[in-house]
Amino acid sequence: MFDGGHDYIYTVNMSRLHQPSFKPPMNQSQKTRSLSTQKVVSKAIKLADKDGIDTLSMRRLAAALGVTAMSLYNHVESKDELIDLMLNEVVAGFDSPKIGGDWEVEIRRRAHSIRRALLRHRWACGLLMSRIVIGGAILRDINATVGCLVSAGFSYAQADWARNALDCHVYGYTIQELNYPVDPGEYKAAAAQYLPMISKTDYPFMHEAAVQIIDNKYDGVTQFHFGLGLILDGLKRWVSEI
Amino acid sequence: MFDGGHDYIYTVNMSRLHQPSFKPPMNQSQKTRSLSTQKVVSKAIKLADKDGIDTLSMRRLAAALGVTAMSLYNHVESKDELIDLMLNEVVAGFDSPKIGGDWEVEIRRRAHSIRRALLRHRWACGLLMSRIVIGGAILRDINATVGCLVSAGFSYAQADWARNALDCHVYGYTIQELNYPVDPGEYKAAAAQYLPMISKTDYPFMHEAAVQIIDNKYDGVTQFHFGLGLILDGLKRWVSEI
DNA sequence: ACCTGAACACCGTTCAAGT
DNA sequence: ACCTGAACACCGTTCAAGT
Fold first, then answer.
1. Does pLDDT of B12 surpass 70?
2. How far is CA B144 from CA A83, A84, B76, B151, B190, in A?
3. Is-contact A106 A69, C-beta < 8 A?
4. Which residue from B minimizes the CA distance to A200?
């Protein structure tokens, strides 16, 4: 046990199940009016996909919808709720593992589909990690994942631990990947260019790593499936040995 | 290979080695003046630790230092550089693995120390994941980690892959942990309270998980060392088998 | 060399007023 | 029921002016 933390994570933060995003959208039967929660959320996602989340303001979003900023508040409670709704939509795009299928295949498929969705919506990964999102889509994903593992022989506790370890990797890898959008070729060139800036006495191993990349000894590249494979292998051994 | 992504991550994004935070602080020999880069950064960290990063504005920071917002720009180039400097300070608090020691012990110690540092500075984890920080402290940490693994028999490529898988877990777990700051006791109570909201027909497995937690079948808790252990075990097997 | 006040171009959100 | 304009209390940053 370490100072400052509890050293545990819960399955789902149930104390947040009352979140706005858990409720259905505000106005269901919108017919004559131009705007709707759905339209606002869709346009917000489109803008965030194009220009990033930092430039997404209520004013800019409203302008893109041909309306003033304040009219958005008839359809979303706040910018915070808007972002929750946007994230729920992204999560709705995850492939749910099939309950009763080969758990390893299903879980691997889910992991890859999450990564793909987060690469499509580059703004979403950081937000999904750093806030608690409780929408129908998240509940569906958790239910399917736990269900798949439990059906394959995991206990509920084991399924929780497995899902946690897997998600740490999926989100942790993807957010790093989103920050390194350069080409492998460019990377080698960059290593050559910046080698003189990596002090050989201060950072000998980094220096040598850069030299090896320049000399084509290796490519300095890491892949998603590696860590995923480590974890899946470990889980397989773990469930079978108990 | 999936659409939208490259499916790889580089060791270090060398194209960013020219970042301001990689250079030494702006004014080194500050004597008579009241402010200095170091003082600005320290106070900013103190404020962020206390009130979170969202409320840290240049104006509030300046006020806390008894100065106007604009005078801060004599010591940091921008708010962005300020945050880079703050993050570098946090990373400087990580325990570096000893080169030549038992790699598993050293790497595990590093992982726990990172988690601890990020729990002390709750604002730092999300930022460290979602931006590229290249300061002396990061270079030192990477150098020591790669050095520890290489000295223990990993190839440079293997060391990269290992560090990547480990860091995905360390950061991925910690950021989740930061979002679940409730007590285990409270969690059980919350499960009982919110059970009716988890539709048994829509989310049967989540429903059953909640029931099991309420019935003390398990505690719904996941620990840092579990995923870390899975990865370390996998790495151990991986290096020995080649 | 450092600090300042005023200003610029923005924010999210409230509120009273319109239709 | 929805949309609006004006306003409030903020932002980060620039720039000319002070010492």
1. no
2. 39, 40, 29, 10, 43
3. no
4. B143
**Residue A220: pLDDT band by 50, 70, 90 thresholds?**
confident
Residue for token digits 């206390």?
Answer: B50
- Joined tokens for residue B210: 């909640």
Residue B129 corresponds to which tokens in the numbers above?
A: 């994941």
Query: Residue B58 and residue B79: Cα distance in Å, rounded?
Result: 7
Residue B10 backbone dihedrals phi, psi, to 5 degrees: -90, 160
Partner residues linked to A10 by β-bridges: B221
Min Cα separation B218/chain A (Å): 6
Residues B51-75: what's their mean pLDDT? 97
Confidence of residue B182 (pLDDT cuts 50, 70, 90): low
- Looking at residue A18, its pLDDT comes to 36
Mean pLDDT to the nearest integer, B176-188: 76
Q: What is the DSSP letter of A54?
A: T
CB A129 within 8 A of CB A87: no
Cα distance between residue B51 and residue B239, in whole Å:
44
Cα–Cα dist B97/B119, whole Å: 20
> Cβ contact (<8 Å) for B143 and A203?
yes
Interface of A with B in 163-202 (CB under 8 A): 164-165, 167-173, 175-184, 186-187, 190-191, 193-194, 197-198, 202
Nearest CA in chain A to B133: A179
Q: Which of A142, A217, A230 sits opposite B206 (nearest CB)?
A: A142
pLDDT at site B181: 55
